[in-house]
Every structure is written in C-alpha cells, then in structure tokens.
Amino acid sequence: MLNLTTGATEGIPLDCRKFGNHGFVFTFVPIVYGCIFVMGIVGNSMVVAVIHCYMKLKTVANILVLNLAISDLTFLLTLPLWATFTATGYYWPFGTFLCKASAGLVILNLYTSIFFLTVLSIDRYLAIVHPVQSRRFRSIAYARITCVVVWVFAFVLSMPTALTRDVYLLSGHNKTVCGLLQEKIEKVKKLNDLVLAIKLMKSLLGFLIPFIIIITCYCLIGRALLGAKRIQKSSRSRDDEVLRMLAATVLAFFLCWTPHQVCHFMDLLHQMKPLKQCDILDMVDTAMPFTICIAYFNSCINPIVYGFVGRQFRKNLLRLLRSSPRGATGPHPSISSKMSALSFRASEALSLTAKTNASADVK
Hints:
mainly alpha; 4-stranded antiparallel beta sheet; 11 helices; 74% helix; globular; GPCR_Rhodpsn_7TM; glycoprotein; membrane
C-alpha cells in the first residue's frame, strides 16, 4: 500500500493501490488540454476583442457574454499547469500557492460559467416571452450588478476547494503532488465532512439546479415561439433558427458537463459508503480525467454558441481580422442583434395572439 507523506515526516495510507494510475492518461489528457487551451484562448479572446472594439457594453447580453468569456479565459490560463501535472505522471513542480490557486480557479470557472449561462437563459426568456414587462429589469445597471453578484458568489463557493488543496510528497515514488489536504487522525472526520459538502455543492449548485432552470427557460421560450407561429407564419424560418440555437446551447451544456457530473456523483457515493470498493474507485479515477476534458471543452464551445452563430458578430470579427476602422460602417450592432430582432417579432406575434384570444372571448 502506497504512503503519502507531508513534508516527508508523516505517512498517510491510501485506500487502494491503483487509484486510476494508467499510462495512457498521462499521454492523452495533456494533448487534449493543449488543444482546449489554444482553441479556448483564441475563441474567447476574439469574443472579448469584438465586444470591446465594435459592440460595446450597451446591452445585457453583451455584458453577460463578455463576463462568460473572461471567466473561460481565467480558467484556461491554468490548463498548461494541469497539462504538465498530468504529463509528468501527476508531479506538481509549481509550489503550494499555484496548487491552491489553480484548483480554486477551476471551481470558480465551473460556477461562473454555469451561473452566467443560467442568467443568459433567464434574460432570453424575459426578452422573448415578457419583452415589455421585463424592460426595466433588463437594464445595463442591473446586468452589471448581477455580474458582480455572480463573481462574488462563485468566488465564495470556490474558496473551500482552494483551502483544502496542498502539496505533498509521495514517499514511495519521490514525487510531489497537488492533492486534497491531509490532516491528523483527530481532524480527518471534519475534513471528510467538508470535502463531502464541497462535492454536494458542486453537484447541486454547479449543475443540477442551474440545468433545471435552463431547461425550464428554454421550454417556455420554445412554447411561446411555437404559439406565435400560428399567428405569424412569415417568421417561421427565423423562429426555427432561434430554437435550433437554444437547443444547441442546452445540448452543449448537457453533453459537456453530464459525464463529469455522473462520474463526480459516483465518487460522492463512494465517499459516503463506509466500505471502500477499490475496483469502483479505480474505475472512477480512471474515467475522471476524460470527463474533465469533456467538461473543459465547454470553454471552447461557449464562443461558438453565444458569438459565432450571429451574422453581425461574424461581420465584426472579419472587420477585426482585417483591422478596419471602428467607425467604418454604421452603428455598433449588439452581439444579440439577431436574438433581439427575433424577440421583437416573437413579442409582436405573442401580443397579436393575446389580442386575438381577447377578441374571441368578447365575441
């Protein structure tokens, strides 16, 4: 049985021998991390540049998308560290501070990304289904306050993860690793309870509750748009485009995060059980790096889903790449110009539907 040593003074037994230590993980995962790093940095940097140079922070959607891109960029900066950590067989040469900071930034990105996706979903629901009533709540001031609240709340939720990470020396392997904090025997139960609480928050606040909110918002949007089609047939193709984009958003979120959350939930169940089943633990630890890769890939998809699908965004991106002057063509379009136009047409159709129903009631 392997021993984990803190400062080469205290031996801490590990429960199982294998703990997901497979050679192909050390080759495959760093390559994927490298690809995600390059794609994510390029994509999110373009989103930030296009919004800053051409679109400005004049709409709620622009502010939220900019914060989402900044969140992804902050996380992506830690990927070279994790790629090196995995490529060297889980050897951490970067010290205690970067161990804690990198682990905290990963969880910070998890929460900020999902929270901003949730806020964007709520914003789209209000803009399309309740365009008039929600106008005063969808102001620039409210959007900025919401972003501050999201960052602060996500930071608070990520702090326990940072505080429960430290650097240790594997005595049998002469290898420094970045892992969970190890305490003396009398403090082990408190630490285990804290880790369990962190994992529960990650499952509930980091996935399940936001996902339910997102699904609910898009179902209500879809129902409203489908109802509006009966009155305004000419907007059918454009409404279908919105529905496809919303479906792609939900599908991307679901596909990227569900494998990791399932794996994470199995690890959570394993921790709650008094008996240690090493085969299950080894299976979870082996699958975890691959599910993390899929989850991290969401940082590359976000610019595509929320930016590159817009025709105006692509125009502005080409202007940026060609280094054309900022004032060369007309006013600055919003990153959500296509969605706003559809929101207006949908709201008109919904209003017309309501008037038609009212007329029918009078008759």
